[in-house]
Hints:
The strands form 3 sheets. Strands 3, 4, 5, 6, 9, 10, 11, 12 and 13 form a 9-stranded mixed β-sheet that branches. Residues about 1-5, about 135-140 and about 145 have low confidence and may be disordered. By secondary structure, the chain is of the alpha/beta class. About 25% of the residues lie in helices and about 30% in strands. The protein is globular, with a radius of gyration of 17 Å. The protein has 7 helices and 13 strands. Helix 1 (about 35-40) packs across helix 2 (about 60-65). The longest helix has 13 residues, at about 80-90.
Amino acid sequence: MTTLPKRAGATTDDFLGGRISVIQPRSGHRSGSDAVWLQAAVPARPRDRVLDVGAGVGVAGLALLARVPKLELTAIEIDAGLCALATENAARNGFANNVTIVEADVTLLARTLQAKGLAREGYDQVMTNPPFYAEGSARAGPAKAAAHIMAAGALPAWIGFLTAATAAKGRLTVIHRPEVLGELLALLDRRFGALTVFPLFPSEGAPATRIILQGRKGSRAGSKLLPGLVLHHDDGRYTAKAEAVLRQGERLDLDG
């Protein structure tokens, strides 16, 4: 890892117990644990081609590279400033040769992947942390809007792009809010099979606040709901399994 000086208006944050370190804006969109949960569920193997959609400053992709070396990672982000930081963070963590950053609006790319140098059905693993909130359902300042607010009617276009990019028999992994699960399942129907839902519960007995949804392109296998993961004890400490994923870089097994 390359040590770089701190800068005004940004923070330097460690993930996976310090295995990766990233620079990100002090305000506006900031990557957190969702990026780590997402990548932990991706069953990538060395030499896989991986696409990270809505990458921010690159945390999910860099964490995945720390866990599974020798991947070929392409990261797509709409915000030019975050793209610049993602490029810097890849170099900072020694992955400059593994990572390609693409500045693009994915809702406009389903029919024109090659215009950005992207490969149709070219990625073994596609992962995404999309904007969580529908337009008009939540407030966000200009710095956060693109990362947190999905424009009206944009989710089908987003899923269309993910489908076009995923290789035949490739895996798609999505982290989202439970309230959107029904819409996601409908959009993925007849595109992806072997759909697996993995809930993330903030504490024992509490409703899930996140779901990880994973499927295999072209599969006809049925769907399954897994027990998921409880993140915190009653006193706020992470559970042992959550700690192992966040600090030691363990994988979340969605094949169980």
